[in-house]
Write a structure and sequence with these properties.
Layout lengths: L1 H13 L6 H14 L4 H12 L6 H12 L16 H11 L4 H12 L5 H10 L7 H34 L4 H31 L7 H4 L9 H28 L2 E4 L1 H7 L12 E3 L5 E7 L5 H13 L6 E7 L3 E3 L9 H11 L9 H11 L8 E6 L11 H10 L2 E6 L13 H4 L5 E4 L3 H11 L3
Parallel strand pairs: 3-4, 3-6, 6-7, 7-8
Antiparallel strand pairs: 1-2, 4-5
């Protein structure tokens, strides 16, 4: 029962009912005090503790029976047993003029039958019940089926059928009785369908919203949750871009430029009416080195996604990836969307049993791309610093630190794990100007924001 109450609270929240943690605790305490034997007391205890806005009571009343009540089919009428032979003949002739689908549905309504499992299964696919959001079920799926598809089509068909029967000479009052009973049977079908959708959805774990996912450790996320994050990266990047652009706008002026002031104010007799500032370039020039080994692969993927979505706030980015060798991956992004480009990169360096070797990759970087490393460059590494006991090449790391403006390291592992096993992180740390711990997407975005701060 406790698990069902938790699912019910999730469904209410997904349907835009604001429920705090303290209100959830109040609900459990009320249930513990009143018990669950009296269904009405149980319902009222949850209603009083969970819903504070009268406008949301209808949502509660709609969802409660789906979680805490068995479906009792509404009474239906079997009209085929009430018809005279002449009326049956008229109905047969009228139904034969309908499309096959409507004819079968109307025959079901005439017999007062509900949907069977063979009919509900294709309907669930039609309704896209793989979507976990309860508010989507309430506001889209049921509205779409009841109003636009099943209900409207069936109601129109019922009216059309009655018109045909009247034209064939059926008594008006008798035709209206048939119409009313068909509409009543149709409502029973709608209620069965609504209950089926609700029972289908409550057995599925509702998808957590983005705010919850970005604050959970990336290692703990399922593939489905990661896919949801991948789709939302652009929205996260837009928030980050706006904040960075505003900061750049406010700090676009550099220090006072005395020479420019003198030149600009010669016409005023060197009285400094027109103050000039030196240009201040805040957009950094990045050389990015991403570890694509299995343990940190998804971190590098998300890092690349975020950075390439905010390229307009970066002077230039040169991206490299490595496992046991170095790959220059910037060309993969030319003329492609970020997601398509990253997919291409990940295919080029698939996961597997590689012997990760950062030292060898640093060697290749200095041999082939030395010109990219200068006093304007911010050198960024994302990885766990685990080197499979290969030579870490600290001499090369020292040379890079001398050549570059600064070195920033994004590490998903906590500092307590550094230096243990094959980790060389404690050896690399002295050469870094800043090390960020990035176990969640929220921490990753915050670290990128600080990276672009200066």
């Amino acid at each position: 029962m406790e698990e069902r109450i938790v699912q019910f609270i999730r469904a209410l929240r997904a349907s835009k009912v604001r429920i705090s943690l303290s209100e959830s605790i109040d609900a459990f305490e009320a249930v513990n005090h009143l018990g669950v034997k009296d269904r009405e007391n149980f319902r009222l205890s949850l209603r009083a503790t969970l819903v504070k806005d009268a406008a949301k009571l209808a949502i509660f009343d709609e969802l409660f029976p789906l979680f805490f009540g068995q479906f009792t089919p509404p009474p239906t009428s079997n009209l085929t047993q009430e018809l005279s032979p002449e009326e049956s003949e008229m109905l047969t002739q009228a139904l034969n003029q309908m499309t096959e689908y409507l004819r079968k549905m109307l025959e079901k309504l005439l017999r007062g039958e509900l949907f069977d499992s063979n009919e509900l299964t294709p309907l669930s696919r039609f309704l896209n019940l793989e979507n976990n959001h309860y508010d989507r079920f309430r506001n889209e799926s049921m509205r779409y089926v009841k109003q636009e598809k099943l209900s409207r089509a069936l109601e129109d068909a019922i009216h059309q059928l009655v018109e045909m029967l009247l034209q064939m000479g059926m008594d008006f009052e008798r035709a209206k009785i048939i119409q009313q009973k068909l509409l009543s049977n149709q409502e029973a079908l709608n209620q069965q369908l609504q209950q089926y959708i609700g029972q289908h959805l409550i057995n599925k774990k509702p998808q957590e919203n983005l705010d919850e996912l970005i604050n959970r450790p990336i290692r703990s996320l399922s593939e489905q949750e990661l896919e949801h994050l991948r789709k939302e990266v652009r929205r996260l990047a837009n928030v980050l871009r706006t904040r960075i652009a505003l900061r750049l706008k406010r700090a676009k002026s550099g220090p006072i430029d005395l020479k420019a002031i003198i030149r600009a104010n010669l016409k005023f007799g060197n009285i400094p009416f027109d103050i000039k500032h030196k240009d201040r370039t805040l957009k950094p020039r990045l050389v990015l080195l991403c570890d694509l080994s299995t343990s940190v692969r998804v971190y590098s993927e998300l890092m690349l996604s975020l950075l390439y979505e905010i390229q307009d706030q970066i002077s230039k980015t040169y991206a490299f990836a490595f496992i046991d060798h170095l790959e220059y991956i910037t060309p993969e992004f030319i003329g492609k969307g970020a997601r398509q480009a990253i997919f291409s990169v990940l295919q080029k360096m698939p996961p597997g049993h590689y012997n990760t070797d950062l030292g060898f990759s640093l060697k290749k970087l200095l041999q082939d791309y030395l010109d990219l490393l200068n006093r304007h460059t911010t050198f960024v590494i994302i990885g766990d610093g685990r080197n499979n006991y290969n030579n870490p090449r600290l001499d090369l790391m020292q040379e890079i630190s001398h050549r570059c403006h600064r070195i920033i390291w994004f590490n998903p592992e906590p500092s307590l794990s550094w230096g243990k096993g094959d980790s060389d992180m404690l050896k690399y740390a002295p050469f870094c100007d800043r090390i960020f711990h990035v176990s969640t997407v929220s921490e990753l975005a915050s670290a990128i924001d600080q990276l672009l701060l200066t």
